[in-house]
Amino acid sequence: MKLYDIAHSRAGDKGDILNLSLIPYNEEDYEMLCQKVTAESVKEHMRDIIQGRVIRYELANIKALNFVCYKSLLGGVTTSLAMDTHGKSLSSALLEMEI
Amino acid sequence: MVRTKPEKTLRIGSGAGFSGDRLEPAEVLVQHANLDYLVLECLAERTIALAQQRKSHNGNVGYDPLLERRMRRLLPLLIKHNVRLITNMGAANPIAGAEKILCIAKELNLSCKVAAVTGDECLDQIDLNAEIWETNKTLASYEPIISANAYLGIDALLPALETDANIIITGRVADPSLFLAPQVHHFNWSRDDYTKLGQGIVNGHLLECAGQISGGYFADPDKKDVPDLAHLGFPYAVIDPDGRALITKVEGTGGLVDLRTVKEQLIYEVHNPAEYFTPDAIADFSSVQVHKVGKNQVEVSGGSGTTRPDLLKVSVGYHAGFIGEGEISYAGTNAAERAKLSGKILKERLSGSVSDLRIDLIGISSVHRTQFERIDPYEVRVRAAGHSDSEELAMLIGEEVEALYTNGPAGGGGARKKVSESIGVVSTFIPRDKVQTQVYLKGV
């Protein structure tokens, strides 16, 4: 299945760094997401987008994950030539991942 | 009509999450949420550099371009309902913004006091040899620099709140601080009670993007449905003396406040959730608890924090030349191949003039820069974009796209071209004690 089926996400930007939250609709799926959606698997899935490292933070308090992706916004919003300079649509790219 | 304010709890509404945000939701909040404070956050990274440019041409402007429209509509309501306003609509010129608000008050025959907070401008105090945060280059390599503004914290806002001003207008202030300052002022929190400050920052962070916590930027039909999104209501918080907050919206407005919207916003633009840096404290979001307590009511508590950083972040705007863009569409059978041929031709024709030409295929890979599953769309739009220090060379990009009509593949249509001045923003840091803030108070 796709992450889209069981979780939602919002993208944020700071400079050339993208952050993607991953929040299961059902809190019981959190442990499974922790196991299956690692920093490495996200980097592999989004290899055409993320040029730097990925750090995963676990927010067990609200049953959510946060992926911080370096060098992912073509230099950052202010001078980027990208169509989506903020990378706001990239939450949907994460949710395309098959698990 | 003057209401009696509740003694214990504090009610803060969020009436704008960016400079171009919708006007009506703030009016609804002031009329129906029984607020103590309304906050309008209107200053994005680049906005202040653009405003600085306007100010350099005319010293009486440089505040938010929508200030006049917003204030004409809001001012009578704010005075009538006795709601104080805190806003960063001062942008590059808070004093001129304050004077404009006073002019509007006079015209509308309203009596009000405005406090302008200054001191975020620090172009003369920054070290041009310092490395910037984003890369290891020095600031000097980004000349010509337009503006440098420190992210002020509650230190700058509290003296203004201690006056009897109805309106507090600032330039660059860290977004959560716009919300933390009234909490600290109202509850008289100790400045080293980092647990309460941390929770206050959580409340500010949740509110600062306005509709993004009340159902905006959330809907996905049949998956995440949001009722009556067309009439999206903006959020307000009812905050207890210990910082615990109830996040909600005005009954009857569109939108949705639930655990999903609150969680998405809590992590929005956050890196390490245990270390969320602000000028007032380093907040810890990793202990935050969220509970649904009613329809469109989520209670948030448990935020914490540690001591504030010694350095303030500074946003530096610089001239980055021009960006030229052009677009043209292809449709029907083999549209994608004709679009790709166009991209190839543009690269060849512009190779001598534009060094960083970017070709996007809108409908295929323009926003994700990749395609996870190959889909042949019925129509595709080619977009070319590139930088140049010369406006003329930047214009050439759109001109070459337009020329694809008679010099490119079959069936191109709807060509558009555009050139814009590019303003870049990079960040550096400044010791806190180098920044001196002041309050300018005036009434009519």
UniProtKB/TrEMBL annotation, chain A:
InterPro entries: AtuA-like_ferredoxin_dom (IPR056362). It comes from the Bacteria. Residues 1-99 form the AtuA-like ferredoxin-fold domain. It holds the Pfam family AtuA_ferredoxin. PANTHER family: DUF1446-DOMAIN-CONTAINING PROTEIN, PROPIONYL-COA CARBOXYLASE. This is AtuA-like ferredoxin-fold domain-containing protein.
Automatic annotation (TrEMBL), chain B:
Residues 10-440 form the Acyclic terpene utilisation N-terminal domain. It comes from the Bacteria. PANTHER family: DUF1446-DOMAIN-CONTAINING PROTEIN, PROPIONYL-COA CARBOXYLASE. This is Uncharacterized protein DUF1446. The lineage of its organism: Bacteria, Bacillati, Bacillota, Bacilli, Bacillales.
